[in-house]
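For practice. Supply one:
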Amino acid sequence: MNADLILADFRHIDTWLFDLDNTLYPAESGLMGEIERRMTAYVQKVTGLDRDEAFKLQKVYLAQYGLTLGGLVEHHGVAPADFHAIFHDMSLEALGRDPELVAALARLPGRRLIFTNADDVHTERVLARMGLADLFDDVFHIGSADYVPKPDPATFAKIVAAHALDPGATAFFEDREINLAPARDLGMTTVLVGDHAEASTAPFVQYKTAKLAPFLAQARLKEAA
């Protein structure tokens, strides 16, 4: 389904899960590039590898563990808090308040939750910078998942249990296609977000949109009781 051409039907949805990075803000902000640069520098520091080799190892760990941090913990004894601290002083000047996004999120009925592989401090900083903090009921971050990242099914089971989710009444918005597969297996409605979304042919992706705000603004929603 092409969500840019077909009006998305969310009349059965009362819980809204949103990934954070490259989902609530666009990839063209460049923030994820800075996150990756800092991550590579950290891998260099921990391993003693040069930058190119550190970048390769970073991607190997991402593929194997779903998160670079997983490999750093398993093979190098890194403390998760030390790793996440490298992002806490990042400039967020590339992000700003988007009135269209604020309005689109505010019209969604029911609960709105963040579901991210980032930590709580980074998430809170981004939401505050974008003027979105008051629009979300809670954040399920990597610490909430005991540092087991999406797309691990166990992490999806944890958020379902923690928030008593009804998957059939839940929509999940993500920029990483692979993270939508376990959500769809549970019966959630899945939305792939970003400029790359239209090219997806994955059967577990139900809707695709390059721009989150107009997609949400046009969606069909459950009427207020």
